[in-house]
Design a protein that fits this description.
This protein is of the alpha/beta class. It has two domains: 224 residues, Rossmann fold, CATH 3.40.50.2300; 129 residues, Rossmann fold (3-Layer(aba) Sandwich). 37% of the residues lie in helices and 18% in strands. It contains 15 helices and 16 strands. Strands 9-8-10-11-12-15-16 form a seven-stranded mixed beta sheet, with helices on both faces. A five-stranded parallel beta sheet has the order 4-1-5-6-7, sandwiched between helices. Strand 13 and strand 14 form a beta hairpin. Helix 14 packs across helix 15. The radius of gyration is 22 Å and the shape is elongated.
Amino acid sequence: MLRKILTIAAAGSCLAAFAGDAAAKLGSCNEPIVFGTTISETGPFSTLADRWRGMTEIFAEEVNRSGGVQVKACNKKVPIKFVIYDDQSVPAAAVSLYEKMATVDNVDFFVGPDWSSLGGPVPPIAEKHKIPIVMGNVATPSIYDRGFKYVWGTPYPVVPRWSERYFDMLSKMNPKPTSIFFITHDNPVTKGITGVWSKKAEAQGLKIVGSETFSQELKDFTALIAKVRAAKPDVVYISSFDGPSVPLVQQMRSLKVRAMDVHHVMLTGSLYRQVGKDIEGMTGELSWYPGIKGPYSDLVETVMQRSNISMFDYIWTLGRLSSYLVMVQAIEKAGAVDREKVREALYKGTFKAPAGDIVFDERGFPNNGAFTVQMVGGKVSVVWPPEVATGKVVWPSPSWK
């Protein structure tokens, strides 16, 4: 515990000079608008976010190319800048750093953090100091159920809309699937996804011919796969993070599972690198992908290209960038660098983003969905909905048929 405290203290002290230089003059029209954030640059979440510091700085550069954020009360555009700290993927570090940004750096607004483990303890800091915060990838609904007035989030996708477009696709395929088998990683998020979408599957007329849950530690899936083979489902729906399902996918191939489609709710570059051609033909979800045109899509594509970030490898990137986009738009709607006016603009607001409108409910929780993607010929493409697709769905999947 002492070591953890010293590490957090060291993180704060080593960045104190940078933060001090960036301290905001609240409500100023002559100083940059300062966003305070933490990024998990080290610790267990760092593989998901290790390029986000550079991405965040580049986002500010791109916004500032045209002068910054239009502020009506200032009768001009005002540039933005970020105070950035490494929260080390540690909740206590995040809490300490957001407190520091509020009291020492005097940032104007908060954006971030990500992950529900950090997003749970940080909102009380925003609430105490009455600083609006738009968190990134904080998806647990209960975090938003505490009656906070200064807290919003932009996770992609939210569980109630996770596979919405996929099941719409299934309803329109020919031949039409009639049965489905759910395989679920024993994790609160993935179990929540199965809980919602198994009910949706039944309501859509799909017969559930099996539902199995596996632990993080399971490496031999022979018995589970035998149940899948015996059930002969048209669709195998895998609700899992990429790491735990690697041996599952590999063994499904080696044991020759057959289906019209194998769907993995988090189809990622990491999974592809680990299982190689075994991922061929599988479908999944992504929050957004370059080539889908929408509000701010050119800005986001430019920022990602300059940051050397692929959405397929860093699947949570849109959630993080959308927290910035929403805060920028909230300031423009408020017409002033004023925390209370920005809070009012955020409340039950609608904001533009590359994947479509972000609409907040009274809790600050969004309605964000996802696009259906498929791996064909070693390349991932958006295949549903058709009006924004970057490739055509191959159905049934030749490699699983």
